[in-house]
Design goal:
The structure holds two protein chains of two kinds.
Chain A: H1 23-41, H2 47-64
Chain B: H1 4-26, H2 29-45, H3 56-80, H4 84-92, H5 102-110, H6 114-125, H7 130-137, H8 141-158, H9 167-173
Helix pairs in contact in B: 1-2, 1-3, 2-3, 3-7, 6-7, 6-8, 7-8
The chains are: A mainly alpha, B mainly alpha.
Chain lengths: 90, 186
């Protein structure tokens, strides 16, 4: 396949006698891409991501409301903050 | 940071977009979820650098793409070396012609150079303006424009849309065009 142009990033078609891409084809690609992307947007968020946010939020709450003694059970998805140890008010 | 509840809901809101972008960048859902996790943790840890009133989604996308380009792309390249046959299969694309579906967009997308894929996703899929995309990718607006346009053409070539029977109606049947300057969203 001497005429293949893989990865050269040439903007226009027409390599080796292939006609340049008609604008309609390029537009069709845009539509398909958008449709595919939008479909992904509608997928449910994986639980582990929601869980992560909740953990982050809880660690935040621990920092700001240090009177809350009940939440220190989840080390699993803790952010790697350097100031991890919760400062308790004396 | 007392408004973390509100912020959390805004993060949750942005999550589908982060995830779709990550999947499209990585070409792999598992890796994409790792990337999104890492992005969220980073974002959370430097929330104080986020300027309120600016575009949270753009800020998150910047963190995600920087993480991707500094860490994930390497792994992707290592994988790509074994993928030569994959692209040749793609350019032959014989019997699949009859049922080209959305899946093929993501397959073809994987064949694009990283910078083109990123630009195309930001502008054509995610709907960022060229200016926003340029900021996210930390490059010139003109660079983004040229990447997007090359990516579109390349993708059309990869999917052989010009010759596909399936696309005959697609090409000429619809007056709705997605190309052109994207509408700038606030």
């Amino acid at each position: 396949m001497g005429n293949q142009d893989d990865g050269s990033g040439k903007p226009e078609g027409g390599e080796g006698g292939r006609p340049p891409m008609p604008p309609q084809a390029v537009d069709a690609v845009g539509r398909r891409l958008k449709a595919s992307y939008d479909r992904m947007l509608r997928e449910p968020i994986p639980d582990k991501l929601i869980q992560l946010l909740e953990n982050l939020e809880r660690s935040q709450a621990n920092k700001t409301h240090s009177d809350d003694e009940l939440t220190h059970s989840d080390d699993e998805l803790q952010p790697d903050t350097h100031d991890r140890p919760v400062q308790r008010e004396e | 940071m007392t408004a973390s509840g509100d912020l959390k809901s805004r993060l949750v809101e942005a999550m589908p977009n982060l995830r779709a972008f990550a999947i499209s960048l990585c070409g792999n859902a598992d890796k994409a979820d790792d990337l999104v996790q890492e992005t969220l943790v980073k974002a959370w840890n430097k929330l104080d650098t986020f300027e309120d009133g600016t575009n949270l989604k753009a800020w998150l996308f910047t963190i995600l793409r920087n993480t991707y380009f500094s860490q994930y792309r390497k792994r992707r390249r290592e994988l790509a070396d074994t993928d030569g046959e994959y692209s040749s299969r793609l350019s032959v694309q014989p019997q699949q012609q009859g049922h080209v579906d959305l899946q093929d967009v993501s397959i073809a997308l994987n064949e694009l150079p990283d910078d083109q894929r990123e630009a195309l996703l930001l502008v054509a899929a995610e709907g960022f303006s060229y200016e926003q995309a340029a900021e996210i990718s930390e490059c010139a607006v003109g660079t983004i424009k040229s990447r997007v346009s090359r990516a579109r053409v390349r993708l059309a070539e990869l999917m052989q849309i010009d010759s596909g029977d399936d696309f005959a109606t697609e090409r000429y049947g619809s007056g709705v065009l997605v190309s052109g300057d994207p509408v700038t969203r606030g």
